[in-house]
Amino acid sequence: MLRVILAAFTYIFLLSRAWFTGTLNKRYNKEKVHNPLINGNFSPVTEKTKSHLDIVGKVPDDIDGIYVRNGPNPYIKIEDEEFYHFFDGDGMLHGINFESSKEVTYLNRWVNTIRLQEEKQVGKALPFTRIGEVRDPVGFFLYCVRWIKNSILIFLRLAPPPQLGSKTANTALEFHAGRFLALNETDIPYQVKLPSLETVGPYDFLGQFNFPPNHFTAHPKIDHATNHMIAFSYSLDTKPFCRYYVFDENDKLLRQVPIHFDIPVFMHDFAVTKTHSIIFNLPFQFRLDKVLECVSPFMFDPTTPSKFGILPRMAKDQSEIIWFESPACYMWHGLNAWDDGDEVVLYGLRSDTVNYFKLTDAYATPEHPIPDKSDLTYLHLWRFNLKTKTVTERNITKAFGCEFPTINNRYLGLKNKYGYIGRYGDRNVKEAYIDAVIKLDLASDKDGQDMKYTVYEFPKGWYSQEWLFVPRVRQSGEESKEQEEDDGYVMSYMYDSENRESEFWVLDASSNFGKEGCLLARIKIGSRVPYGFHGKFVTRQQMSQQVYNLK
């Protein structure tokens, strides 16, 4: 209770300061803002199912399963666009069900979270935490007022404590131990049935996942050899701020390692090798002290070095971590990592700051200026020497910004030759338009030589976001032959900005990539699929092995 009282006095002070500096008046006496991240092809759609879709070209016979992509799609109308952020929308799953090479169905469904159920019931937005509000200092103050009120009510037993599963499940997807999971890093996963996309409910790993604050990463890693799942969670307000996990093939928890950070940070992704895991402690921070200055608590600090912690896959505690420091940066997504003698190799998408999603107030000093185009992400290489405790690094693709990396996941944590990334065009980087998909030849990356890559340019006015690699299923008689790493397909939703309609494209990812005939199939959806985040392909065989028990 003392904590609540102290917080109340602190934020009464903040309200007074905000009022006298005019911040509160500025918030409520201004013209409405047009937010591009809730308009155009970011604007929400309703649920639908479309069968017997027209196909231009031919879907390969071995593509047998369902592709699903997650992304934000607000159910309640956004009244004040300035305080909406792309990360806040309710999760909607968009599926392409390949029932055969000639019969394809599109369907979309909201992830029916506890939060969505409650807002549907009352028909309006409820006071759940939203990034678009709390990144603004006054919005953060108002959030804190609500938090104080709710804390008092909970303390007096006049209101129930917050439930697990009260967030959006809008970011990514994974299939493990017979369960298809919709993921968001501020909550536990939600299980979803395939191919119907019906929500089963929040999944706490059969009661094992009870470590405050009960968050789970949107980017767990599945080891193809062992089928173990490696994961982490982070918190902005509950120590130790980070936890590391390993689950076996049946979702039994094998390891849980608290990792203590000095300052809470946003840790969206991490990386694994065959024997190690890499923790990203990067200086995109949550700084309550900045609220006292009436600025956003979400801060990228270029004066703080980036820290990469490498620990054995089956580490028992954080004393086994070796920490490396490098210049300040941020990384939304890694491409891949692997062991190389005494070194751990990491490829990732590095930026100098965190601005292009309009998430933070990066602050500069004369000694640490924010460079031009600092909000773009570029392919970058780090090599961590576990013996000498040193790190070397270099940029790979400064010629173009890129994001949403994908590889053949059979090579996750192993040395691989190929990666695929989306290229940001020059049209409007801050709206995250991707105008080409690029195949990287990682084997050609050597000191003093430019990495080779092949570009598949989209037609003018066509855009996408993440592309997903799906390996080709070998046919009878091919089992004895070694399958090439790039023997497969990359696939994604495509948006025709002129006609405001979407299609689903399948490209040949092998040696024919970027050449004539690379585009194998265009599936015409006949309506718009909004931009989103991450996708997953689940085979028909995997779907037949689904289990639905949540407890």
Which descriptors would you attach to this protein?
single chain; 6 helices; mainly beta; 33 strands; 551 residues; 5-stranded antiparallel sheet; 6-stranded antiparallel sheet; globular; 35% strand
Question: What does this 3D model show about the protein?
Answer:
By secondary structure, the protein is mainly beta. Helices cover 11% and strands 35% of the residues. The protein is built from 6 helices and 33 strands. The strands form 8 sheets. Strands 2, 28, 29, 30, 31 and 32 form a 6-stranded antiparallel sheet that branches. A 5-stranded antiparallel sheet has the order 1-5-4-3-33. A 4-stranded antiparallel sheet has the order 6-7-8-9, with no helix packed on it. Helix 1 packs antiparallel against helix 5. The longest helix is centred in the first third of the chain and has 19 residues. About 2% of the residues have low confidence.
Secondary-structure map with pairings?
Layout: H1 2-20, H2 23-28, E1 48-50, E2 54-57, E3 65-72, E4 91-98, E5 104-110, H3 114-122, H4 131-134, H5 137-155, E6 172-176, E7 179-183, E8 190-192, E9 199-202, E10 221-222, E11 229-234, E12 241-247, E13 253-260, E14 271-272, E15 276-281, E16 284-286, E17 298-300, E18 306-312, E19 322-326, E20 330-340, E21 343-351, E22 378-385, E23 390-395, E24 402-406, E25 418-424, E26 434-441, E27 452-457, E28 462-464, E29 468-471, E30 488-496, E31 501-508, E32 519-524, E33 535-539, H6 540-544
Antiparallel strand pairs: 1-5, 2-32, 3-4, 3-33, 4-5, 6-7, 7-8, 8-9, 10-11, 11-12, 12-13, 14-15, 15-18, 16-17, 18-19, 20-21, 21-22, 22-23, 24-25, 25-26, 26-27, 28-30, 29-30, 30-31, 31-32
